[in-house]
Write a structure and sequence with these properties.
Helices cover 53% and strands 9% of the residues. The chain has 319 residues and is α/β, with parallel strands linked by helices. It folds into two domains: 242 residues, Rossmann fold; 59 residues, Histone, subunit A (Orthogonal Bundle). α3 packs across α4, α5 crosses α8 and α6 packs across α8. The longest helix has 24 residues. The two termini are 13 Å apart.
Length: 319
């Protein structure tokens, strides 16, 4: 029995590369909706530091999974996959093209691969028991239950050793077994992935620096102070855009130093994002500095996507 060909778009790339504006242009042309693929934009109450799209930037296009999670809640890739799948399935039922947009490579790759993940939240009792052990004892346990993971980890890499043990004790699977099991169910959707990149790294860095300046003008400092004062344990307080101001509020550095640190950390984060996306061989790389405008970039995306869908329908491609 043949299955329905369900193509969808993904617009990914580093911070400040223009993903939001591009996704809106593409969504308007296709009559589609935008679905968040960003691990910080899902939180409520932190719109400036996370660069969450404003109503003006959305231009009337429906956006899903943006700002829907209270700051006090923990969030995981497992929950993201559940929520994104529900949204995308509903959009396909309505005949509305989904456009995933974001810079969190783990979310995007996991959705593309239709990962079936078992471990959601660490067991606090188990974590406490493991935390009480020294590195030698932890590594000995890992060698016993998951020798493959032990061969790949350094004995002093306490965080990853504990995580590997948590996976085994919570699910009964080693990390390798979980990876195999998680890929056992093919995705019902076929992705057309676009990654934004730059020939000139300095141009990207200039955009990042300008974005930080604009965020400060929009009230980032006040937002960071509110979050750090009212909910210091929230996950987002460890995100770039907030933690850099903690030293300023405590009087240890100047505002100028905090802003420069934020720019530096954001540039480093962009490099890590690009490294992740460059490993995704199925991506269509679009060099932003080759295009005169977002509209021109959107036209290229639409041309490639339309050819992609026509080819898939003609070949009866199924994913």
């Amino acid at each position: 029995m043949s299955e329905v060909f369900r193509p969808y778009l993904i617009i990914a790339g580093p911070t400040a590369s223009g993903k939001t504006a591009l996704s809106v242009q593409v969504a308007k042309a296709l009559g589609g909706d935008v679905v968040c693929a960003d691990s910080m934009q899902i939180y409520d109450g932190v719109s400036i530091g996370t660069a969450r799209p404003t109503p003006a930037e959305m231009q009337g296009v429906a956006h899903h999974l943006f700002g829907h999670v209270p700051l006090c809640e923990k969030y995981s890739v497992v929950r993201y996959l559940e929520e994104a799948e529900a949204v995308v399935a509903t959009l396909f039922q309505k005949g509305t093209p989904p456009i995933l947009c974001g810079g969190t490579g783990l979310y995007i790759q996991s959705f593309i691969e239709n990962r079936q993940l078992f471990l959601q939240e660490p067991d606090p009792v188990l974590r406490q028991q493991l935390d009480a052990l020294d590195e030698a004892a932890l590594f000995a346990r890992l060698q016993e239950v998951d020798p493959l993971a032990a061969s790949r980890l350094h004995p002093h890499d306490r965080h990853r050793v504990i995580r590997a043990l948590e996976v085994y004790y919570t699910t009964g699977y080693t990390i390798e077994q979980q990876n195999e099991q998680s890929l056992s169910k093919p995705s019902p959707y076929t992705p057309c992935l676009f990654v934004l990149d730059f020939h000139s790294r300095e141009r990207l860095y200039d955009r990042i620096n300008r974005r930080v300046d604009i965020m400060l003008e929009q009230g980032l400092l006040e937002e960071a102070h509110r979050i750090l004062q009212t909910d210091p344990d929230a996950t987002v307080t460890q995100a770039i855009g907030y933690k850099e101001f903690a030293a300023y509020f405590s009087g240890n550095i100047t505002l100028e130093e905090a802003a420069e640190k934020l720019k530096q950390q954001t540039r480093r984060y962009a490099k890590r994002q690009l490294s992740w996306f460059r490993r995704m061989s199925s991506a269509h790389t679009l060099w932003v500095d080759d295009y005169a405008s977002t509209e021109a970039l959107a036209e290229q995306v639409l041309t490639i996507y339309r050819e992609f869908t026509e080819r898939g329908q003609k070949n009866g491609e199924i994913r």
